[in-house]
Design goal:
single chain, binds zinc ion
Length: 154
């Protein structure tokens, strides 16, 4: 594991993770599923390559279907219930980390807002940040472009 890895974990500390790269992008999702699973107004989503993530501690999964017919495995700490990441069976090479679990959240600067049609009206957006009524038409490709993945040349 590189020394410059970034790290995070659940609320109780039983689950910890590290990421081998530094250059991650975070988007905000205001959809109702995200409001529910965060029990808040929106989710902070950080897509990363599954292979870049090293997890310590036992996770459990809650699996739910999505509108596109995929199944999303939602990984959480069984001790404290913190949601750590989501992983779709349609793109298992990517996990979407719930970025509020990062150890250092001060640097979070969202690159986009999704599902603003479901946004809480008191959440005010930065006009300089792209916002989608729902989500980009090809979410998988959009997220891969955010990640710079697949790597050039592939
Ligand atoms: Zn925990
Ligand atoms: Zn959402």
């Amino acid at each position: 594991m590189k020394q410059d890895a970034i790290s995070g974990g659940c609320q109780c500390g039983a689950v910890r993770y590290r990421l081998v790269n530094q250059d991650y992008k975070i988007y905000v999702c205001h959809c109702l599923e995200c409001q529910k699973h965060t029990s808040s107004a929106f989710a902070l989503s950080m897509p990363v390559k599954f292979e870049d993530m090293e997890v310590q501690g036992a996770l459990e999964n809650y699996t739910r279907g999505t509108d596109s017919g995929a199944k999303t495995r939602c990984a959480f700490c069984p001790a404290c219930g913190t949601r750590l990441y989501h992983r779709s069976d349609k793109s298992p090479e990517i996990v979407t980390i719930k970025a509020g679990t990062l150890d250092d959240t001060r640097a979070i600067k969202p690159v986009a807002h999704l599902w603003i049609s479901r946004k809480q009206p008191w959440v005010l957006l930065d006009e300089g940040v792209p916002a989608y009524d729902t989500q980009p038409p090809d979410l998988k490709t959009w997220r891969e472009e955010l990640m710079g993945f697949p790597a050039e040349g592939s």
